[in-house]
Amino acid sequence: MPVFCTIGKGEIHINNMKTLMAPNQFFIIPKNTRHEYKADEAKPWSIYWFHFDGTLAEELYNRYLSTHISNYKNVSFSDNKLKLFEKIFNLFNNNSLVNQIEYANLLSLNFISSFIYHDHESKSDSLHSDTLVDLIKDYLLNNLEINFTLDEIATKFNYSKSYLHTKFKIKTGYPVMVFFNLKKVQKACEYLNYTDLSIKEVSFKMGFEDPLYFSRIFKKYMGKSPREYKQSQRK
48 and 84 in contact (C-beta within 8 Å)? Predict the structure, then answer.
Protein backbone atom coordinates (compact mmCIF):
# COMPACT_ATOMS: atom_id res chain seq x y z
CA MET A 1 0.00 0.00 0.00
CA PRO A 2 1.61 3.30 -1.07
CA VAL A 3 1.19 6.22 1.33
CA PHE A 4 1.93 9.82 0.29
CA CYS A 5 1.76 12.53 2.96
CA THR A 6 0.82 16.01 1.75
CA ILE A 7 0.04 17.90 4.97
CA GLY A 8 0.85 17.44 8.66
CA LYS A 9 2.60 14.51 10.30
CA GLY A 10 2.03 10.86 11.10
CA GLU A 11 3.80 7.58 11.74
CA ILE A 12 3.82 4.04 10.38
CA HIS A 13 4.73 0.97 12.49
CA ILE A 14 5.99 -2.20 10.78
CA ASN A 15 7.82 -5.04 12.56
CA ASN A 16 8.43 -2.93 15.66
CA MET A 17 9.98 -0.18 13.55
CA LYS A 18 8.49 3.30 13.44
CA THR A 19 8.75 5.55 10.41
CA LEU A 20 7.81 9.18 10.83
CA MET A 21 6.00 10.81 7.93
CA ALA A 22 5.93 14.49 7.00
CA PRO A 23 4.75 16.48 3.95
CA ASN A 24 6.13 15.29 0.57
CA GLN A 25 7.22 11.93 1.96
CA PHE A 26 6.34 8.56 0.49
CA PHE A 27 6.21 5.04 1.95
CA ILE A 28 5.05 1.63 0.73
CA ILE A 29 3.59 -0.81 3.24
CA PRO A 30 4.22 -4.36 1.94
CA LYS A 31 1.24 -6.68 1.54
CA ASN A 32 0.52 -9.43 4.08
CA THR A 33 2.46 -7.49 6.72
CA ARG A 34 1.09 -6.46 10.10
CA HIS A 35 1.20 -2.70 10.41
CA GLU A 36 -0.26 0.31 12.15
CA TYR A 37 -0.33 3.92 11.13
CA LYS A 38 -1.74 7.03 12.73
CA ALA A 39 -1.79 10.78 12.39
CA ASP A 40 0.08 13.10 14.71
CA GLU A 41 -2.26 14.53 17.35
CA ALA A 42 -0.92 18.08 17.15
CA LYS A 43 -0.51 18.23 13.37
CA PRO A 44 -2.66 15.46 11.85
CA TRP A 45 -1.62 14.37 8.39
CA SER A 46 -3.48 14.30 5.13
CA ILE A 47 -2.49 11.29 3.03
CA TYR A 48 -3.19 9.68 -0.33
CA TRP A 49 -3.17 5.88 -0.35
CA PHE A 50 -4.60 2.77 -1.99
CA HIS A 51 -3.94 -0.96 -2.11
CA PHE A 52 -2.37 -2.46 -5.21
CA ASP A 53 -1.57 -5.96 -6.40
CA GLY A 54 -0.88 -7.79 -9.65
CA THR A 55 1.95 -9.27 -11.69
CA LEU A 56 4.10 -6.11 -11.37
CA ALA A 57 3.48 -5.50 -7.69
CA GLU A 58 6.44 -7.51 -6.42
CA GLU A 59 8.86 -5.98 -8.93
CA LEU A 60 7.71 -2.48 -8.06
CA TYR A 61 8.12 -3.12 -4.36
CA ASN A 62 11.61 -4.61 -4.89
CA ARG A 63 12.57 -1.54 -6.89
CA TYR A 64 11.32 0.59 -4.02
CA LEU A 65 13.41 -1.42 -1.54
CA SER A 66 16.53 -1.25 -3.72
CA THR A 67 16.62 2.53 -3.39
CA HIS A 68 17.70 4.00 -0.07
CA ILE A 69 14.72 5.08 2.00
CA SER A 70 16.04 8.64 2.22
CA ASN A 71 15.24 9.06 -1.49
CA TYR A 72 11.56 9.03 -0.58
CA LYS A 73 11.85 11.53 2.25
CA ASN A 74 11.48 14.61 0.10
CA VAL A 75 9.60 13.77 -3.06
CA SER A 76 8.98 16.99 -4.98
CA PHE A 77 5.42 18.19 -4.56
CA SER A 78 3.45 17.99 -7.78
CA ASP A 79 -0.10 19.10 -8.22
CA ASN A 80 -0.24 16.76 -11.23
CA LYS A 81 0.25 13.77 -8.93
CA LEU A 82 -2.74 14.76 -6.83
CA LYS A 83 -4.88 15.40 -9.89
CA LEU A 84 -3.87 11.98 -11.21
CA PHE A 85 -4.95 10.35 -7.94
CA GLU A 86 -8.31 12.13 -8.07
CA LYS A 87 -8.80 10.89 -11.62
CA ILE A 88 -8.01 7.31 -10.59
CA PHE A 89 -10.41 7.55 -7.64
CA ASN A 90 -13.21 8.91 -9.81
CA LEU A 91 -12.71 6.21 -12.43
CA PHE A 92 -12.91 3.42 -9.86
CA ASN A 93 -15.76 5.07 -8.00
CA ASN A 94 -18.00 5.97 -10.94
CA ASN A 95 -17.39 3.31 -13.58
CA SER A 96 -17.86 -0.41 -13.97
CA LEU A 97 -16.96 -0.69 -17.65
CA VAL A 98 -13.97 -2.94 -18.29
CA ASN A 99 -12.08 -0.40 -20.41
CA GLN A 100 -12.54 2.28 -17.72
CA ILE A 101 -11.23 -0.07 -15.02
CA GLU A 102 -8.26 -0.97 -17.23
CA TYR A 103 -7.55 2.72 -17.73
CA ALA A 104 -7.72 3.34 -13.96
CA ASN A 105 -5.27 0.47 -13.38
CA LEU A 106 -2.82 1.90 -15.89
CA LEU A 107 -3.06 5.32 -14.26
CA SER A 108 -2.48 3.68 -10.87
CA LEU A 109 0.72 2.12 -12.18
CA ASN A 110 1.77 5.55 -13.43
CA PHE A 111 0.98 7.08 -10.03
CA ILE A 112 3.08 4.54 -8.11
CA SER A 113 5.93 4.65 -10.62
CA SER A 114 6.13 8.44 -10.38
CA PHE A 115 7.26 7.95 -6.77
CA ILE A 116 9.35 4.80 -7.10
CA TYR A 117 11.27 6.19 -10.07
CA HIS A 118 11.25 9.81 -8.97
CA ASP A 119 15.04 9.74 -8.53
CA HIS A 120 15.37 9.11 -12.28
CA GLU A 121 12.95 11.95 -12.99
CA SER A 122 14.99 14.24 -10.75
CA LYS A 123 18.21 13.39 -12.60
CA SER A 124 16.51 13.97 -15.93
CA ASP A 125 15.09 17.29 -14.73
CA SER A 126 18.50 18.31 -13.41
CA LEU A 127 20.18 17.46 -16.73
CA HIS A 128 17.54 19.42 -18.62
CA SER A 129 17.97 22.35 -16.23
CA ASP A 130 21.76 22.35 -16.70
CA THR A 131 21.38 22.28 -20.49
CA LEU A 132 18.86 25.11 -20.42
CA VAL A 133 21.07 27.29 -18.22
CA ASP A 134 24.09 26.67 -20.46
CA LEU A 135 22.04 27.66 -23.51
CA ILE A 136 20.93 30.88 -21.83
CA LYS A 137 24.49 31.70 -20.76
CA ASP A 138 25.81 31.17 -24.29
CA TYR A 139 23.00 33.29 -25.73
CA LEU A 140 23.68 36.16 -23.34
CA LEU A 141 27.46 36.04 -23.76
CA ASN A 142 27.07 36.16 -27.53
CA ASN A 143 24.74 39.16 -27.33
CA LEU A 144 26.32 41.44 -24.74
CA GLU A 145 25.71 44.42 -26.99
CA ILE A 146 21.92 43.98 -26.71
CA ASN A 147 19.94 45.25 -23.74
CA PHE A 148 17.58 42.29 -23.15
CA THR A 149 14.87 42.25 -20.52
CA LEU A 150 14.01 39.15 -18.51
CA ASP A 151 10.67 39.02 -20.32
CA GLU A 152 12.45 38.86 -23.68
CA ILE A 153 14.81 36.12 -22.48
CA ALA A 154 11.91 34.08 -21.07
CA THR A 155 10.01 34.45 -24.36
CA LYS A 156 13.09 33.42 -26.35
CA PHE A 157 13.41 30.14 -24.42
CA ASN A 158 9.65 29.63 -23.98
CA TYR A 159 9.66 29.43 -20.17
CA SER A 160 8.17 31.58 -17.44
CA LYS A 161 10.32 34.26 -15.83
CA SER A 162 10.05 32.60 -12.41
CA TYR A 163 11.17 29.21 -13.78
CA LEU A 164 14.20 30.71 -15.53
CA HIS A 165 15.09 32.78 -12.48
CA THR A 166 15.01 29.74 -10.17
CA LYS A 167 16.93 27.35 -12.44
CA PHE A 168 19.52 29.93 -13.43
CA LYS A 169 20.22 31.05 -9.88
CA ILE A 170 20.56 27.46 -8.61
CA LYS A 171 23.11 26.66 -11.33
CA THR A 172 25.12 29.92 -11.40
CA GLY A 173 24.44 31.59 -8.06
CA TYR A 174 23.19 34.71 -9.88
CA PRO A 175 19.79 35.91 -11.08
CA VAL A 176 19.68 36.06 -14.89
CA MET A 177 19.86 39.85 -15.18
CA VAL A 178 22.61 40.16 -12.55
CA PHE A 179 24.69 37.65 -14.50
CA PHE A 180 24.00 39.48 -17.77
CA ASN A 181 24.93 42.91 -16.39
CA LEU A 182 28.03 41.50 -14.69
CA LYS A 183 29.26 40.10 -18.00
CA LYS A 184 28.49 43.41 -19.70
CA VAL A 185 30.58 45.23 -17.12
CA GLN A 186 33.44 42.74 -17.48
CA LYS A 187 33.41 43.27 -21.24
CA ALA A 188 33.26 47.02 -20.71
CA CYS A 189 36.41 46.76 -18.59
CA GLU A 190 38.19 45.16 -21.54
CA TYR A 191 37.20 48.06 -23.80
CA LEU A 192 38.28 50.62 -21.21
CA ASN A 193 41.60 48.83 -20.72
CA TYR A 194 42.60 47.99 -24.27
CA THR A 195 40.90 50.50 -26.60
CA ASP A 196 40.62 54.25 -26.99
CA LEU A 197 36.83 54.16 -26.97
CA SER A 198 35.17 56.84 -24.87
CA ILE A 199 32.96 55.89 -21.94
CA LYS A 200 29.93 56.93 -23.97
CA GLU A 201 31.01 54.69 -26.85
CA VAL A 202 31.61 51.77 -24.49
CA SER A 203 28.18 52.36 -23.01
CA PHE A 204 26.55 52.11 -26.44
CA LYS A 205 28.56 48.99 -27.32
CA MET A 206 27.22 47.31 -24.18
CA GLY A 207 23.64 48.08 -25.11
CA PHE A 208 23.13 51.01 -22.71
CA GLU A 209 21.58 54.01 -24.43
CA ASP A 210 21.96 56.14 -21.30
CA PRO A 211 25.65 56.56 -20.31
CA LEU A 212 24.62 57.72 -16.82
CA TYR A 213 22.70 54.49 -16.24
CA PHE A 214 25.69 52.54 -17.58
CA SER A 215 27.93 54.36 -15.08
CA ARG A 216 25.61 53.44 -12.20
CA ILE A 217 25.57 49.77 -13.23
CA PHE A 218 29.36 49.79 -13.68
CA LYS A 219 29.96 51.33 -10.25
CA LYS A 220 27.58 48.84 -8.65
CA TYR A 221 29.77 45.93 -9.75
CA MET A 222 33.23 47.50 -9.83
CA GLY A 223 33.02 49.86 -6.85
CA LYS A 224 34.09 52.83 -8.97
CA SER A 225 32.80 54.75 -11.97
CA PRO A 226 34.00 53.93 -15.51
CA ARG A 227 36.06 57.13 -15.51
CA GLU A 228 37.68 56.28 -12.16
CA TYR A 229 38.32 52.72 -13.34
CA LYS A 230 39.92 53.92 -16.58
CA GLN A 231 42.17 56.38 -14.71
CA SER A 232 43.23 53.70 -12.21
CA GLN A 233 44.31 51.37 -15.02
CA ARG A 234 46.62 54.01 -16.51
CA LYS A 235 48.64 54.59 -13.35
Answer: no
